[in-house]
């Protein structure tokens, strides 16, 4: 496993990791390592604990000794070296010293005073990004300097990809934002590098694989696009939606969420294939170091019998792994865990059925969570506590299947119930699922709970904890939700996790807020406008752990591609209710024409809505995934 720290829910993201893993920094690390190999005796001064991730992400070089200035760190192990006191460094006989720190000018001066004059001192400032790629020039490890992410990017004469987002940084005062982009092919080779200016104001951002392929005269590719946003404010996360559609006659259509830019030890929520399906896991190396053979593996969830991925994977390369080739006989509704060893950001998977493809993402499986007995005795003021809302698409046309997915290393059971609501917020029914084991294979088809005539226009369900027969909870409740047209022509699936919703009382960091401390009681969601041929739609859910406002006060704000507001309309969603919306059915045609290439901002200051978005075509193809906000 890579010895790196990436993200945790207390401190957030680790800028040191991004500073070392950035593709341009990785190239400079290779040059630095070559220089370090020329030392007769190399010592490392590690004031900030950066040596371990440096060792993991840089080419190998010999180290004679590791030194620290923190007396409490003396004798600790870092990347296999015992930390020695800095006062011993002058007697170590080193002819070269690496300071494992950025912005190290003062540290260089400090060491120069105690080291022989002929000892060379180098710092990690040697691997800094160019000044033109920095947002904050005064503090290199400012998270805003590393607003980066990866994209599954594919244009192979069968499928094309289209990234869509908006300049949400402008709302926090950013101006002059631009994107630096590097495209890697399946072998990890750079096949294109370019910049894209971002519209001033809250304009649309679109990166289409077909346009990139034409502009750079590329052949077919399946690889990854690295994005670095420069000049940003407010958010150091690059959020996007990704449409994946057929360019042949297969009719495939998918959408998926941003890649979640932090490598994880494990990922979960990967469905096993049905008898008539192939499930392909797209493994994309996020680093400039190879993934060794056997460093990653697949395991049937709960089996604790991981099967290694036998072949190595080159730096930044993309590899298609047929799940059945490693786990034959493991079939839906069993689910699969990827033990990724922190080598990659959240992967995508592809389900191939009847010559059609659908693509979705798996989720981070947390190592830091343990069952929390306090969840069993949450204050009544928090009502039903943690909820995982999911759409029920119109049942006259679609079936809806829910698969609870363990999403933490220490989750051994899931005590669950499903509550089902009509669009007007009326509770239709509830069903106790039991205390599901980690290795459960229970996929709930809602047709088994609802009469054929129930919810013809859809509604929504909520997975909730239910301790009627015991069980444990940690608050990291997840599920996969699969939708199939009843004629079996098309399908889509999405996954997400639970929160406490719309209570004025708080518990730890819930109800979660993306801006400021809890409670999160407002909504800002992005919905791509789509086109008349490929309409955009969304299911907006107003989940409430306890009773809140009787109705939402939701505004749909139509923007053109420059971010200028073209039209607005209001709607109301009942508490514990939902609404299926489509911009091409809500806004007047002249407004839609003026907003072509734009998007809809869904805004509500009274409550936090939870949304799922997708596209639909007249031939019945559709896609679905959860929405992102900012």
Please count the beta strands (DSSP E, at least 2 residues each). Answer: 42
The amount of helix comes to: under 10%
Uncertain segments are: none
End-to-end separation in angstroms reads: 33 Å
State the helix count.
8
In which order are the strands of the major sheet placed? 5-6-4-3-7-8
Number of discrete domains? 4
**Class based on secondary structure composition and strand pairing:** mainly beta
Rg, nearest Å: 25 Å
**Overall mean confidence score, pLDDT:** 96
Main sheet makeup: 6 strands, mixed
Beta-strand content: 35-45%
Instruction: Indicate the overall shape.
Output: globular
**What's the quaternary structure here?**
single chain
Keywords:
single chain; 630 residues; mainly beta; Rossmann fold; 4 domains
Characterization of this structure:
This protein is mainly beta and 630 residues long. The protein folds into four domains: 7-131, 3-Layer(aba) Sandwich (Rossmann fold), CATH 3.40.50; 143-257, Hypothetical Protein Tm1070, Chain: A (Sandwich), CATH 2.60.290; 266-365; 373-626, no CATH class. Helix content is 9%, strand content 38%. It contains eight helices and 42 strands. The strands form ten sheets. Strands 5-6-4-3-7-8 form a six-stranded mixed sheet, with helices on one face. Strand 32 and strand 33 form a beta hairpin. The mean pLDDT is 96.
């Amino acid at each position: 496993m890579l010895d790196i720290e990436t993200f945790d829910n207390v401190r957030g993201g680790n800028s040191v990791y991004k500073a070392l893993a950035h593709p341009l920094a990785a190239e400079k690390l290779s040059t630095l390592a070559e220089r370090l190999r020329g030392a007769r005796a190399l010592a490392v001064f590690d004031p900030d604990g950066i040596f371990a991730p440096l060792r993991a992400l840089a080419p190998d070089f010999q180290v004679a000794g590791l030194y620290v200035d923190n007396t409490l760190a003396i004798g600790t192990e870092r990347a296999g070296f015992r930390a020695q006191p800095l006062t011993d460094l002058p007697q170590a006989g080193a002819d070269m010293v690496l300071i494992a720190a950025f912005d190290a000018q003062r540290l260089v001066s400090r060491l120069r005073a105690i080291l022989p004059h002929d000892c060379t001192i180098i710092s990690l400032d040697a691997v800094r990004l160019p000044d033109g790629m920095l947002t904050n020039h005064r503090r290199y490890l400012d998270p805003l300097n590393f607003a980066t992410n990866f994209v599954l990017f594919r244009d192979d004469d069968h499928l094309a990809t289209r990234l869509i987002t908006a300049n949400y940084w402008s709302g926090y005062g950013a101006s002059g934002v631009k994107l630096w982009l590097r495209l890697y092919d399946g072998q990890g080779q750079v096949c294109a590098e370019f910049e894209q200016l971002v519209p001033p104001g809250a304009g649309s951002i679109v990166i289409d694989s077909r346009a990139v392929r034409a502009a750079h005269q590329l052949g077919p590719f399946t690889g990854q696009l690295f994005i670095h946003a420069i000049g940003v404010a407010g958010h150091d996360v690059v959020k996007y939606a990704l449409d994946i559609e057929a360019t042949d006659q297969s009719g495939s259509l998918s959408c998926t969420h941003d890649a979640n830019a932090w490598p994880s030890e494990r990922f979960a929520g990967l469905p096993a294939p049905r008898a008539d399906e192939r499930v392909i896991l797209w493994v994309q190396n996020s680093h400039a170091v190879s993934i060794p053979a056997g460093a990653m593996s697949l395991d049937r969830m709960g089996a604790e019998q991981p099967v290694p991925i036998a072949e190595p994977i080159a730096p930044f390369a993309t590899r298609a792994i047929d799940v059945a080739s490693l786990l034959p006989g493991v079939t839906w509704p069993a689910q699969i865990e990827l033990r990724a060893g922190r080598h990659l950001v959240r992967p995508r998977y592809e389900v191939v059925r009847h010559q059609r493809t659908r693509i979705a993402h798996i989720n981070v499986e947390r190592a830091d969570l343990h069952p929390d007995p306090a969840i069993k005795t949450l204050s009544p003021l928090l009502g039903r506590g943690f909820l995982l809302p999911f759409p029920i698409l119109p049942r006259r046309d679609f079936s809806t299947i829910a698969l609870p997915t363990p999403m933490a290393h220490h989750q051994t059971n899931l005590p669950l119930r499903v509550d089902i609501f009509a669009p007007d917020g009326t509770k239709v029914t509830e069903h106790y699922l039991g205390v599901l084991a980690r290795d459960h294979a229970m996929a709930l088809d809602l047709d088994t709970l609802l009469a054929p005539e129930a919810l013809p226009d859809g509604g929504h369900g909520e997975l909730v904890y239910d301790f009627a027969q015991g069980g444990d909870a940690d608050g990291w409740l997840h599920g996969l939700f699969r939708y199939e047209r009843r004629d079996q022509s098309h399908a889509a699936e999405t996954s997400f996790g639970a929160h406490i919703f719309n209570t004025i009382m708080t518990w730890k960091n819930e109800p979660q807020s993306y801006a400021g401390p809890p409670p999160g009681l407002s909504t800002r969601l992005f919905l791509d406008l789509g086109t008349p041929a490929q309409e955009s739609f969304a299911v907006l859910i107003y989940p409430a752990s306890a009773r809140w406002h009787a109705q939402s006060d939701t505004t749909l704000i139509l923007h053109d591609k420059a971010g200028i507001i073209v039209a607005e309309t209001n709607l109301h969603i009942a508490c514990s209710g939902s609404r299926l919306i489509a911009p091409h059915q809500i806004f007047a045609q002249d407004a839609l024409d003026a907003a072509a290439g734009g998007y809809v901002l869904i805004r509500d200051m009274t409550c936090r809505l939870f949304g799922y978005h997708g596209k639909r075509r007249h031939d019945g193809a559709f896609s679905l995934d959860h929405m992102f906000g900012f």
